[in-house]
Amino acid sequence: MANSLQQFELVVRRARSVTEARSEPAGGSHPFDDRNIHTRLQNISKKLFDDGHYALATFEAYKLLDKEVSAMAKLSESGVKLMMKAFSEQSPLIRLTNMTSTSEKDEQEGYKFIFSGSVMAIRNPRGHEFGVRESPTECLDHLSLASLLLRRLESAKK
User: Does residue 6 belong to any structural domain of this protein?
Assistant: First the structure.
């Protein structure tokens, strides 16, 4: 009986991944194009997404973001600690604004929390827990945020 249940669960899991797989509209556009996912993120996440590995597609994208911040800030840390140091409004290693007005300082601080929060809430569970499941829509939402952050990083003040 237990073996039959295990076989049934396996069939259901496989069927779910097939039915959740992306479907292209008549025009043939990919959801990554519809969401304007950053090209660099597409390079590492698109095949994973297309194969139904949504949580892994998200995880890989946020690892890339972490590595980019680490390289730009010239720090060996990663994760929340890295983001808090790199975007500190007191002495930023990566300046996202000119930091001349209160508003610009607030924006820098806000992005510090968005970067660190995305690592804490999105990347970390996928890196430290087993079996994290994600829908295609959740994955696209996470990749959209990662795209925004990567583009913001690319436009940072040197």
Answer: no
